[in-house]
Amino acid sequence: MTGPVVVGVDGSPASVTAAWWAAREAVERHLSVLLLHSWTTQPLDVPVAQEALTKQRCGGRVLQRMEAELLHRHAELSVATELVSESASKALVEAGGTATLLVLGSRGHGSVAGFLLGSVSLHVLGLAQCPAVTVRAGDPAVEDGRGHPAALGRNEVVVGVQEPSPAADPLLEFAFAAAEVHGARVRAVRALPPSSLVTHRHADPPGEGYEADERTRLDADLAPWQEKFPGVEVVDHVARGSASQVLLAASARGRLTVVGRRRHPSPLTWKLGPVAHAALHHLPCPVALVPHD
């Protein structure tokens, strides 16, 4: 896609970090950035009683300052701003219809926050039509504008591949494309349920045959993408445990972790699975949620 990288900003530290990450990502992908601010969805430190005009002016200044800072960091970057009156969640979901990426800020460890708060952020992540990335405030590879994930030993794009193709294809395409852009390695992760030790107890050692079969299946899922992206190094990572535990452990060297979520036909039925929740709440690196059928 050639749509912009859309980032929600409100002036909070989390949204500033998200904008820094979005700008660098846009430069490396040769894309533009759209800074979006909803003046009706103010952060917690803005008095609710402020008049609408004051809120709009405040929002305009937030956008101007953020645009100026991004252009100072990346003179070649194309930046647009949009001040909207609809709710932040509605504006971001709509923007995701033509965006390459949506980017949201996340406050430290714990629930997702920043431009959007709590369940509203999760609502956007669950409904976005394009990949949506959360960036955690305090990430040393983003915060000072000079740090680089590879210098911190984080040079892998980690992707969870529990379901075989074609369900995994959108995740793998996103992960391989991101790795190619950043010169990173792909670590493809598949978790084996501990119960397989019981169901395959006749193997010697127990479960070894099942693990070998799953590794073969994973390699088959990866093969078309290795052919399409021959310059990207790939590591297959098969381990026993819950999908959440295995993915979190595998992401220790991740510069980006990619998780899938199913598309939903109605905004009333969206939900994120336990693996997505675990990644969003516990991983220090940026997390990309990629929709798939």
UniProtKB/TrEMBL annotation:
<protein>
    <submittedName>
        <fullName>Universal stress protein</fullName>
    </submittedName>
</protein>
<comment type="similarity">
    <text>Belongs to the universal stress protein A family.</text>
</comment>
<dbReference type="Pfam" id="PF00582">
    <property type="entry name" value="Usp"/>
</dbReference>
<dbReference type="InterPro" id="IPR006016">
    <property type="entry name" value="UspA"/>
</dbReference>
<dbReference type="InterPro" id="IPR006015">
    <property type="entry name" value="Universal_stress_UspA"/>
</dbReference>
<feature type="domain" description="UspA">
    <location>
        <begin position="156"/>
        <end position="291"/>
    </location>
</feature>
<dbReference type="InterPro" id="IPR014729">
    <property type="entry name" value="Rossmann-like_a/b/a_fold"/>
</dbReference>
<feature type="domain" description="UspA">
    <location>
        <begin position="1"/>
        <end position="136"/>
    </location>
</feature>
